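Dear colleagues,

As part of the handover before I leave the project, I'm documenting each prediction I ran so the next person doesn't have to rerun anything. This entry is a single chain, and its sequence is reproduced below.
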Amino acid sequence: MRKISILLNIIILIVLLNGDQTTLVHPPFKHNMGFNRANSTIARMILGRDVRFHRTGGLFAIKLKSEDDPTTRKDNAILTLFGINNHKIVYNVNTNQLRTFGEKGREDSTAALYYPTDIAATESGIVYLTDTYNYRIVKLRYDSAVDTLAYVGSAGGFGIDSSSFDLPAMLDLDSDENVYITDRGNDRIVVMDSLLRPVKILKNISRPGGIAVIDKEKGYCRVKDEKPFIIAISNGVYILKLSMKGREIARQNASNLPGYSNAGFVHADYDYHGNIWVTDSVNSVVHKFDSDLNYIVTFGSKGYGDKQFYKPLGITIYRKYGQVF
């Protein structure tokens, strides 16, 4: 159990959020033996090999159907976690192995990744990835029979048409497995279906970054809004609440945050109650807002100690049990 818990903390390159407020707390000792964070040195000690956290990015936590034992509830909180690390995807297999997919490259190769930024997955084991500087979206499948990720297909290429991208940054999925991609260089959000065919484009969103599609049909979400909506970060300093057609519903400005004159918003996710969580790499904190983007609280401070971060990037929340990574 000790090895399992440590691996699950290391695999997604995380720091568990905490602060002086009681909204977030460390998990019980028996769940992780006191390991709430791990750097490269600790990872090498545990894994016994050369592991280095470098160019990390998006994270995604999911309970894969293929990894769920239907005869017991004891494994329900044990997740598969996908993370971006050094031009690769790193993920856990069951509870005792780490695997990677990809290699640094710009050639036309199914495994070549060049500065990938974000990742998302479905319970059935389909994984989507923004391969940012290869200007494409990559689709993979987790094969439980051999415990590996396999290439399914990709879409994109540099350009401005509906099937092309200019620095695809972050992505998220709706309940129909449509993929919402922030096309940063083209100032838009591109929506593709599960076959990576263009569905629609939401235009005039300046330098979009982090994105979260709040859709109650995805499960484990109690939010007052009956219809799905989109949270998108713009220019690193604005958080936008958009309708599914791209109409702006609400906006939060970094300058409005109490005690902060500036911010560097990066990734966003949401919890069971529809509250929005956003990482801030400039102030090395995490901000929390309600579903209308009203400010609630800020967690953390700059540093390497407990309750501290240093330029946090990715964030993922498993809403069923409230795990925040």
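The chain has three helices and 24 strands. Helices lie at 2-10, 29-32, 40-47.

All the best with the project,
I.
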